[in-house]
């Protein structure tokens, strides 16, 4: 096959759906659950290491674990993800408060969970919720300072500073992430619009090309065909009345005129087979492949679904061109022994498959100037179809094109 493109599959532009957004939120909450679980496991490890933890400390740890299991279950089953996120934002601060209370107050290493809640609030909901969560955390830090004596006032001030810094840092990073996302979405929308406009332009160019081919074929038929027929008839009449020597010369000229007529007819069929307009795609392909078989260096098996016999579509000309281009590529590049062409109706359109047992190629290393598969891809893309290429060195090539009705 022609080594003309590295693209192996083309699909219309995908727009983010509500389902994809929901799945994205699920992934975020699942990752937060993992971080929360790591902190709870670390808390239990500390209790085991200390060995003298109170019943209250164990009860708080078990309560935190039960809370995490409930949140994890709701996230995994997709139960109102946004509501779960909002509740978890508040409950994470409370969980951090109780774990810190049971492990030494604001000087406990588990106070870092308060910073964690500020950061997650920033990425979940933005600046306003982050400020509210920070206010809650400041209140809880003050309560810890009072309930668990031992920490100095400087420690409290430093802790409050860290809480504020974590909130600002999280809000800043979250803002950058949102702006980058908005920019990426805007660029994706612009690319999608440009691609749609390009596809529309390509569709018009293909339509104009087919119209021009049809016009040229008609001109050849009306002008060259008629003149060659008249020339051949005139030579035949002259040969009947000519001397033997001249008659032989005229017979040679008549033969050349007939060959020229056949060449013009073949050129007309390449430009636009009249049978395609008169009888449809099924008959046009049957005639084209029957005439082509005698000139091919490989065995050709064609399976054209008979259901296409009574079916006319605006895609007929494109499907015919795709078959032409594919076989031209095989002949030129594949060094194949056997080629199979299948065309059949599919749900909502058509599916064309071409397979050969030739040399294949590496689609990531395509020689310059090979435009056959690129042409096929562009034709399929212009009509909203898909183009799939499966090939490897020494493994032949398989092409599948799907076009809508």
How would you characterize the overall build of this protein?
Helices cover 68% and strands 9% of the residues. The protein has 405 residues and is α+β, with helices and mostly antiparallel strands. It folds into three domains: 18-194, no CATH class; 209-271; 276-404, Histidine kinase-like ATPase, C-terminal domain (Heat Shock Protein 90), CATH 3.30.565.10. A five-stranded mixed sheet has the order 1-2-3-5-4, covered by helices on one side.
Briefly summarize what is shown:
Helices cover 68% and strands 9% of the residues. It is built from eleven helices and five strands; from the N terminus they run αααααααααβαββαββ. It has helices spanning 18-50, 55-76, 81-102, 112-125, 127-147, 153-241, 244-271, 274-278, 281-293, 316-334, 372-382; strands spanning 299-304, 338-346, 349-356, 386-391, 397-404.
